[in-house]
Amino acid sequence: MASKHEQIIQHIISLEIGHKISVRQIAKDLNVSDGTAYRAIKEAENQGLVSTIERVGTIRIERKKKENFERLTFAEVINIVDGQVLGGREGLHKTLSKFVIGAMQLDAMMRYTEAGSLLIVGNRIKAHELALKEGAAVLITGGFDTEDYIKRLADERQLPIISTSYDTFTVAAMINRAIYDQLIKKEIVLVGDIFTPFERSFYLRAKDTIHDWYELNHRSTHTRFPVVDEKKRVIGMATSKDIIGKENQTTIEKVMSRHPKIVQTKTSLASVAHMMVWEGIEVMPVADESNHLQGVISRQDVLKALQQIQRQPQVGETIDDIVSRNLREADNQKDTYLTTVAPQMTNQLGTLSNGVFTSLITEASRRMLLQYKKGDLVAENLSVYFIKPVQIDSTLKIKPKLLEIGRMYAKIDVEVFDERKLVGKGLLMAQLINR
User: Fold this and answer.
1) Pfam families annotated for this entry (predicted)?
2) Which range, of 65-69, 314-318, 417-421, averages the lowest pLDDT?
3) For the residues of 18-49, what is the DSSP string, one character each?
4) Rounded mean pLDDT of 96-106?
């Protein structure tokens, strides 16, 4: 039987898009406490099923597919620009296809305004009206209101009309940044994208026997299985090491390893890959916040996903991308790398940021190790001894020096020079991953 938490999530999924949701109403309808209803609604928000808007409340929205993350709903736009809904609340769940800045003549503005778009404009009543008639939502900048008949039109067309105190340029920059951030997130693979769901997973119950373990091993060829209780909560892992030498009729709960490592669907692929390599784990259970088994993820799943990522075009550039792209080998100098400090690599004072400095150390060390060990690294500990201000357009020389290396780890000393002046020094302890 589904838990109360799961029942509430299913109830929310069954509601119509645009339906308003309240803690009190959910608690009353499903006969649960306000606390249980609140936690389930928050989980639904994490899953992209609902959106909470200040001064409006929580509404049911359409869950976006991963490939459409660059699209924003009007509900999300309100949160981004700290806006106020003047009309058309029923359309907050809708997705905008593009936004148009209304800094032009009315007829020119209307040529670019189409159904599903968002017109960003100031106190121009006629523009508000024409945009709504074209099927576009309206975002009024400068904190202005609009006429009552415009609000009625917005309600009738179910198209939001929103007011914000920010100016047009700031609003456009904020929305652009939100879309860019989501494009970067789109490229981050999560456990939820690649794991084997519960229906196709192999698992054992606490009262199953070692004989059942062998049968499951024969069917799946796996040697590790999550163990669940009667409510399908993960309580342990049963591995070949746990069952060897035990009698076939011994119950699994007597031999299983308790308190296993568990990941959630929103755990990143990079994090789970690091955990599996470092701990030597082949299969891990995937569970929700209440510890209910949702499926499993195997090392094979992770390796396939990592290989696939290498073939994917990257949409948005992160700081690490910029560091990697700009770093190059120095001519006639072994284990020495050069980079030029780009504007994106600086802090608010116009000097090299501490975060970029650590990325430079890590990337230079990684490239050096690839030549020695033909393998990659994961930084375990990075100590920065000192860093001096480095200006934009400076050319840095990064010199990693291998102090110790073993089968699983390496210790690397890194010095950073601006021309001949030592401007930074760090020590990197890294875990090695053989390719």
Assistant:
1) 4HBT, CBS, DRTGG, GntR
2) 65-69
3) T-EE-HHHHHHHHT--HHHHHHHHHHHHHTTS
4) 78
C-beta atoms surrounding 58 within 10 Å: 21
- Contact by Cβ (8 Å): 246, 210: yes
Dist. CA 7–CA 31, nearest whole Å: 11
CB burial string 284-309: b at 16+ within 10 A, e below: bbbbbeeebbbbbbbbebbeebeeee
Reported as a single tens digit per residue, the pLDDT across 225-245 is 999 998 889 999 998 888 888
SS (H, E, C) 120-189: EECCCHHHHHHHHHCCCEEEECCCCCCCHHHHHHHHHHCCCEEECCCCHHHHHHHHHHHHHHHHHHHCCC
- Count CA atoms closer than 13 A to 359's CA, side-chain side: 19
How many other CB atoms are there within 10 angstroms of residue 215's CB atom? 12
**DSSP SS3 for 75:** helix
For residue 221, the domain's CATH number is 3.10.580.10
- Residue in the block written with tokens 């609140």: 38
Six-digit token string for 304: 């396939």
Do 271 and 326 reside in the same domain of the chain?
no
Domain span including residue 295: 191-308
Domain containing residue 11: CATH number: 1.10.10.10
Can you give the pLDDT at residue 378?
A: 80
Structure letter (DSSP) for residue 315: -
Total structural domains in the chain?
Answer: 4
In this structure, of 34-48, 73-87, 179-193, 279-293, the range with the lowest mean pLDDT score is 179-193
- Res. 268 pLDDT band, cuts 50 70 90: confident
The secondary structure of 395-426 as a DSSP string is EEEEEEEEEEE-SSEEEEEEEEEETTEEEEEE
One domain, residues 346 and 274: no
Q: Is the pLDDT of residue 396 over 90?
A: yes
For CA atoms 264, 268, 273, 278, the dihedral sign is negative
Q: What is the pLDDT of residue 66?
A: 44
385 with 337, same domain? Answer: yes
pTM for the full predicted model = 0.43
